[in-house]
Give the backbone structure.
Amino acid sequence: MAEDFDRICRYADLLWEVVHRFYDEQTAGHLQTAMLSDLKHLYVQQASASTARLSRSEQIFQRFLDALGREQQLPRTVKAYADLLYVSPNHLSAVVRKESGRSVMEWLNAHCILRAQVLLRHTDFPVYEIAEQLGFQSATFFSRFFRRETGQTPSAYRSTPSDSE
């Protein structure tokens, strides 16, 4: 670990010297690429080492959270995410509940509401388009879901000024 830090410092020192003394753009670019490549390699090593220390349940939960943030087109069902992670729906539900204290559907609904709130606040899309983007069969189903989860309709949420405005 200390030798890795020393090597990155040598890259930085050499890069500083090339930029400030010689200003050779091509050499500086190559040094920068080499340093970033080395940093990426170190990051990947560290990430895989930290993942190896996680229990199987923690790994599944982490993969679920990653998929939740990445997958925009998956149906909002436990089965869809379980299939993506190659586990049974029951196992995924048990793991997520154990690791977070929340159900898979609570996570999926909360994520859907956050996406809806962003779209309502920061776009001019009509409610029916937002409903479609989020995978709802109709704007009515979406509006009922949104109201149940937030206590207000999508239109009311959109018209309420945000804290940052």
Remarks:
- The chain has a mean pLDDT of 86.
- The chain has nine helices and no strands.
- The longest helix spans residues 25-52.
